[in-house]
């Protein structure tokens, strides 16, 4: 329960998100509010892709709960098995202590905004000032009425060996539980980025917020964004640029850094479809479909679990727009996909024949 009055306000500033464990209320419940000035809208930016340490932290949350079971239970099963095979279960438990399934977790664990690889992200983490380590770890345990445990004190004191152990654990966990799924994650992030770019061409900078009002409980219109959150909180930009970071392992609600002095980010869910892992596994070998219509066209057909523009397809598959357009034409002529105009956009979707072709492919 959250306390009322000033104490509740202080609690609000200590929490990131309820997306990973704490129930989120919609329809009159607590929300995260972002009100953009015209200048702040013009400075919106979209991260180049998924961020390795954000995905690490968010996937650690998902291993500790059962949210989005249809989408993530198969991944949970694979990830736990991979971590056990790698001898990383104790290290993972230690990381879970720093990333509890609900409430606050330290900002220093997520120093990036989708603009870096794992090595650079870990270098940033290793460079965290001692004062910040101590403050954020004290806050983490104070929320549950505890002092920093003895095993965590070396990290809170900024001892190099403790930071190196943390980086080792994060790298090991990422390699076992996140990296094997990067191709799917990157494709979804690229499609999300392309959709926002398409919308920005039509609606201006505010188009970068496209799709948010389709998420459960989210509202976005006229430079005002509202989203489910554990407590009422206003994210004040004060003229700064907000970076939108797509996150594969984010569920339903957004996340934002607690320290308002840090560059502001809004981490939003990519909402993968149920059965995404099964589809990815089916696509791994060169299937009979790929042999029949070509590997690139088979990948394109598999990508259309949801309607996409040619630009989105090209971004997701790493193709030139002209190449994607040619593949779309061939698949449309074969009756495997259809194209429909929606406003000024043309969306492509797989037909029933295309579904049947993929469903009948041997694995």
UniProtKB/TrEMBL annotation:
SMART domains on file: HTH_ARSR (SM00418), HTH_CRP (SM00419)
Lineage top rank: taxon: Bacteria
Keywords associated with the record: DNA-binding, Transcription, Transcription regulation
SUPFAM superfamilies xrefs: Winged helix' DNA-binding domain (SSF46785)
Spans traversing the lipid bilayer: none
Limits of the HTH crp-type domain: 300-348
HTH arsR-type domain: residues covered: 291-362
InterPro entries, sorted: HTH_ArsR_DNA-bd_dom (IPR001845), HTH_CRP (IPR012318), Metal_resp_trans_reg (IPR051011), WH-like_DNA-bd_sf (IPR036388), WH_DNA-bd_sf (IPR036390)
Recorded GO MF terms: DNA binding; DNA-binding transcription factor activity
Protein name per Swiss-Prot or TrEMBL: ArsR family transcriptional regulator
